[in-house]
Amino acid sequence: MNVSGSSAAPDMDRAGGAIPRIRARYLAVAAMVVGIVLLVAVLAALRIVRLGSSATDLAGAVIDPPMPATDFTLHDQFDTPISLSSFRGKVVVLTFLYTHCPDACPLITEKLHQAYDLLGSDASRLAILAVTVDPDRDTIQQVRQYSAEKDMLNKWHFLVGPMADVKPVWNAYGVSAALDDLASGQANAAAVVTPTPVSGNGYIVDHAAPIYVIDRNGQARAILDVDFAPSDLVHDVRALLH
User: What is the pTM for the complete model shown?
Assistant: First the structure.
C-alpha cells in the first residue's frame, strides 16, 4: 500500500515487463495524486489551520473550528452494526485500513495498539474505528482474524460492508482507494471512484490513511498522519477527555 507521503511499493517487474510496470506505476501515482487532492480539499473545507498545540493543546493537525463528524453505520468483526454516533461521550479515533496491506496498515494498527495500552484506564473512554478500503476481501471473518492476530480483537471495531456502504464514508472523510494489479502490472486508476477486484485477487490498495480524532460531542478536532507517534495520539485523546 502506498499511503500519501510514503514511498512506492517494491517493484514487481520480471524480464521484459519493465516498461508496462513503469507505466502502471505512473498510473498508480496519478491515482494517488487524485486522492491527495481530495484529502486536501476536505482539510481545506474543515479549515485546518496549523500544526501544534500552543493554542489548542492538540498534537495533531487542528480542525478549527471543529466540524461535525459525518455519521455512518457499518458492521464490525463480530458482525455487530456499529454507528459512529453511538460513541457520544467517548473520544473516537477513526482511520482507514485493509487486512491485506503489506506495510503502512500493520504499522498504523501497531501504533493504535500501543496508544490503547498507554492510555491505561482512560482506554475505556475511547473508541477506535477502522473502516476498510478493500470491501471485496475484508469480510467479517477476515477482519476478525486480523484483529485477533494484532491483539486488537476487543480494542477496536474493524468496520466492513459492501462498496455501496463504505464508499460514502470514504467520500465524507476525503479518502480514495486505487487498485494496483500485481499479476498483470496494471494500475487501475479508475478505481479511485469504484474499486473492483482483479483476477486472482492479486492487488494492493493505494489509499490515504488519515487518523481522525473526534471529541465526545461528535466533533472532528484533529488529524494525524501515518507517521504519528502513539504518545501524540494519547496526548490528544486525554486532552479531549478532560
Answer: 0.73
Q: What's the confidence (pLDDT) of residue 179?
A: 77
To 10 degrees, what angle do helices 230-241 and 104-119 make?
50
Between the CA of residue 238 and those of 66, 122, 125, 234, what are the distances in Å?
A: 17, 8, 10, 6
CB neighbours of 121 closer than 8 A, spacing ≥ 6? none
Interatomic CA distance for residues 217 and 198, integer angstroms: 41
8 Å CB contact between 208 and 59: no
How open is the CA angle 97-28-76, to the nearest 5 degrees? 15
Q: Which helix (H) or strand (E) holds 43?
A: helix 18-45
pLDDT in tens, 163-190: 999 999 999 999 988 876 544 444 443 3
Distances in Å between the alpha carbon of 54 and those of 66, 144, 211, 229?
Answer: 17, 40, 21, 18
DSSP conformation class of 201: G
- Give the Cα separation of 136 and 145 in Å (integer): 16
Closest CA to 133 of 64, 188, 194: 194
> Could you give the strand order of the β-sheet that contains 211-214, starting from the edge strand earlier in sequence?
61-68, 219-224, 211-214, 91-97, 126-132, 157-159
Angle at 99 between CA 97 and CA 105, to 5 degrees: 45
* Domains, the chain: 18-241 (3.40.30.10)
Query: 58 and 169 in contact (C-beta within 8 Å)?
Result: no
